[in-house]
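So, can you check this record?

>
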Amino acid sequence: MIARISAVLAIASTCVITSGCGVFPLGRKVDYSIPEKIDPVLFRTEIFGEESSKPINTGYFIYKGRYVPPPYVVRRTGLSLHINDIMVIGPMKWKSINEKNLDSPPEIPNISMWCESDALTEFIDGTFSYYESLYKGPNPPQDKTMLKAVSEHLNKLPNVWDTEVDEERQLIRIHLCNFTSFNVSSSSVFGLASTGISEEAIRDMYQRAYEKHVSYFKDNKIVYRGLKISEIEWLEDVTTFYDAVKILNSNSWSFTKRSNLAKINFASEKIVRDLVSCYKPSKELEKRLYDEYVKALDEQGRRKKTTPFDKFK
């Protein structure tokens, strides 16, 4: 253990001293505009297929604070949903009721000491699946509990510093080498809730999501994918979104922006908080909103004095 601590301190010291070190995670800036990457194996296109909509020129797509201009193409790839190649609904890990259990625990993936990626989730999921089937079988091991067996296998990962078993609460506390920790249990591992769902039911679930997203854009609604949440908000009228963007562009404090957005009843409180924290102004969005705002006034016969486009500045 002393040797392991020394090795970690040596690596940390090297990263602090070396200019521009990208290995040590502290202080690293994350570019939230980069789409998330998911293992394509999880898409299950060989079972669930794929389909794409025709380009749609209405609606608005806000991705992590950035406006993505139309046309929009909604694409379903197996168990995932994409808008212009940006994934908005990830693949659900699905196990057929006829699928055979693993014959052995998953192999240790080739990942770095500082890694915290989907490979970790995949490994945890596979480890729980194997040991659950083993301990629920006719001759379960007697030398240790299932959680202890899972914990020992997880501890073999190069990016796991230590694991703690809590038998009373039926969970495992995982401490990573990048100084983060989290709990896992057989009921909380991502995807296990989908075990046993029929192929037809899960296909219908993603098909309905695909059709809804296509209708959102055709109905000129706002599809919002945030930093922490992914939700849908509708555009009641162009004026509301027009005024909201002016508030987001202002130099006001975040609290003031949230308060002003609440006054015009724009979006849910969760979306407002998320959007205020990461919104990036877009001249293309401002021009489009201004044009639609003026058009709406013309159609209502109320156009007297419109707000100049430069009011967005």
Notes: Residues 1-30, 188-193 have pLDDT under 50 and may be disordered. Residues 199-218 form the longest helix (20 residues). The chain has nine helices and eleven strands. The first strand starts at residue 50 and ends at 52.
